[in-house]
Amino acid sequence: RAIELAIDNVGFDALTGADVQAALIELGAIDVLDGVMRIDFSNDSRSPHQSQIRQVQGGQFVMLQDWTETPDLRPAVNFANP
Fold first, then answer.
1. 52 within 8 A of 68, measured Cβ to Cβ
2. In a 3-state reduction of DSSP, which class is residue 75?
3. Rounded distance, CA 20 to CA 55, Å?
4. DSSP state of 65
5. What is the DSSP-derived secondary structure letter of residue 80?
6. From CA 49, how far away is CA 31, in angstroms rounded?
7. In 10 A of CB 34, how many CB atoms?
8. Tens place of pLDDT for every residue, the chain, 82 residues?
9. Which residue of 27, 29, 45, 59 could cross-link 40, Cys pair, CB 3.0 to 4.6 Å?
10. According to the model, what pLDDT value does residue 80 have?
11. DSSP bridge pairs for 60
Protein backbone atom coordinates (compact mmCIF):
# COMPACT_ATOMS: atom_id res chain seq x y z
CA ARG A 1 0.00 0.00 0.00
CA ALA A 2 2.81 2.40 0.81
CA ILE A 3 4.49 1.92 -2.56
CA GLU A 4 1.19 2.43 -4.37
CA LEU A 5 0.54 5.61 -2.37
CA ALA A 6 4.06 6.89 -3.05
CA ILE A 7 3.63 6.27 -6.79
CA ASP A 8 0.27 8.09 -6.68
CA ASN A 9 1.97 11.00 -4.91
CA VAL A 10 5.12 11.41 -7.05
CA GLY A 11 4.79 9.11 -10.06
CA PHE A 12 6.70 5.93 -10.86
CA ASP A 13 9.62 7.60 -12.63
CA ALA A 14 10.35 9.94 -9.71
CA LEU A 15 9.89 7.33 -6.93
CA THR A 16 12.56 7.24 -4.20
CA GLY A 17 12.97 5.47 -0.88
CA ALA A 18 12.22 8.74 0.88
CA ASP A 19 8.88 8.88 -0.96
CA VAL A 20 8.00 5.38 0.28
CA GLN A 21 8.94 6.37 3.83
CA ALA A 22 6.75 9.49 3.57
CA ALA A 23 3.88 7.29 2.36
CA LEU A 24 4.34 4.91 5.30
CA ILE A 25 4.11 7.87 7.66
CA GLU A 26 1.06 9.18 5.80
CA LEU A 27 -0.73 5.81 6.07
CA GLY A 28 -0.58 5.81 9.87
CA ALA A 29 -1.35 2.51 11.62
CA ILE A 30 -1.26 -0.50 9.27
CA ASP A 31 -2.28 -4.08 10.08
CA VAL A 32 0.40 -6.50 8.81
CA LEU A 33 0.91 -10.28 8.86
CA ASP A 34 -2.79 -10.92 8.30
CA GLY A 35 -3.61 -8.51 11.13
CA VAL A 36 -1.35 -10.10 13.75
CA MET A 37 0.56 -6.84 14.26
CA ARG A 38 -0.22 -3.18 13.78
CA ILE A 39 2.67 -0.92 12.79
CA ASP A 40 2.83 2.85 12.64
CA PHE A 41 5.83 4.68 11.16
CA SER A 42 4.88 8.09 12.52
CA ASN A 43 6.61 9.66 15.52
CA ASP A 44 10.07 8.32 14.52
CA SER A 45 9.14 4.79 15.57
CA ARG A 46 9.24 1.80 13.24
CA SER A 47 8.37 -0.88 15.77
CA PRO A 48 4.93 -2.37 16.48
CA HIS A 49 2.92 -0.56 19.15
CA GLN A 50 0.15 -3.15 19.39
CA SER A 51 -0.08 -6.87 18.80
CA GLN A 52 -2.49 -9.76 19.12
CA ILE A 53 -1.78 -13.27 20.29
CA ARG A 54 -3.08 -15.77 17.77
CA GLN A 55 -2.76 -19.49 17.21
CA VAL A 56 -3.04 -21.43 13.98
CA GLN A 57 -5.91 -23.90 14.24
CA GLY A 58 -6.99 -25.85 11.19
CA GLY A 59 -4.90 -23.60 8.95
CA GLN A 60 -6.57 -20.40 10.23
CA PHE A 61 -5.46 -17.76 12.73
CA VAL A 62 -7.59 -17.92 15.89
CA MET A 63 -7.32 -14.88 18.18
CA LEU A 64 -6.40 -15.79 21.75
CA GLN A 65 -5.86 -12.23 23.02
CA ASP A 66 -7.10 -9.01 21.43
CA TRP A 67 -4.96 -5.95 20.70
CA THR A 68 -2.49 -5.21 23.48
CA GLU A 69 -0.09 -2.28 23.70
CA THR A 70 3.56 -3.27 23.30
CA PRO A 71 6.28 -1.41 25.19
CA ASP A 72 8.78 0.88 23.51
CA LEU A 73 12.03 -1.06 23.91
CA ARG A 74 14.29 1.57 22.37
CA PRO A 75 17.08 2.75 24.68
CA ALA A 76 16.55 6.17 26.25
CA VAL A 77 19.75 7.35 24.58
CA ASN A 78 20.45 6.02 21.11
CA PHE A 79 22.26 7.00 17.95
CA ALA A 80 19.37 9.19 16.79
CA ASN A 81 18.96 10.94 20.16
CA PRO A 82 22.37 11.25 21.88
1. yes
2. coil
3. 32
4. E
5. S
6. 11
7. 9
8. 889 999 999 999 999 999 999 998 998 888 877 777 778 887 777 777 788 888 999 998 899 998 888 887 777 776 665 5
9. 29
10. 61
11. 57
Q: How many CB atoms lie within 10 A of CB 4?
A: 9
Q: What confidence score (pLDDT) does residue 70 get?
A: 82
User: What's the DSSP call for residue 69?
Assistant: E
Is residue 54 within 8 A of residue 63, CB to CB? The reply is yes
Within 10 A of 36 (CB to CB), how many other CB atoms are there? 14
Is residue 67 a contact partner of residue 38, using CB atoms and an 8 Å limit?
yes
The amino acid at 25 = I
What does the angle CA 17 – CA 19 – CA 25 come to, to the nearest 5 degrees? Answer: 105
Contact yes or no for 36/61 (Cβ under 8 A):
yes
Question: Whole-model pTM?
Answer: 0.60
Q: What is the DSSP letter of 70?
A: -
